[in-house]
Amino acid sequence: MELIAKVTVICIVVALTALLLERDTPELGLLLTLGAIAVVMGFALSYYREIQEMVETLLGQAGLDGALFLPILKIIAISMVTKLGGDVCRDSGQKALGAVIDLAGTFCSLLAAEPLLRTAMSMLTQMGGIG
Q: Are residues 129 and 72 part of one domain?
């Protein structure tokens, strides 16, 4: 709860300040936005270890293999970075760069899903579904 309150206040203040700066120097508005992103990501990443421990505990309790869950976490991280990067590019007027980031994120997600796809194919083959 404390994190989202900090993030919201920072983002609102930066958004309003960037709007004021964009009249005269749009570059400064973009730099201010990028700086705020770095600060907010620093706050968010400070919770990474806590989340990792929670996921490991849940996987242990469920008796699931962490190697199969890791690609899901990678895909989630890829989608978050892709969304953020694409939106920053689009907000700065670079729609084509935003689209390229989206495309690259899709390819990276497919590559990260490869272990899951191999496991699924192996299971189907063992069950006799694919020959």
A: yes
**67-90 confidence digits (pLDDT tens):** 778 898 899 999 999 999 999 999
Range of the domain at 75: 64-131
pTM value is 0.76
* pLDDT tens by residue, 12-51: 999 999 989 888 898 898 899 999 999 999 988 888 888 8
* Residues 78, 40 share a domain: no
Question: Based on the number of CB atoms within 10 Å of its own CB, is 123 exposed (0-12), middle (13-18) or buried (19 or more)?
Answer: exposed
Is 18 a domain residue?
Answer: yes
Domain-located, residue 54: no
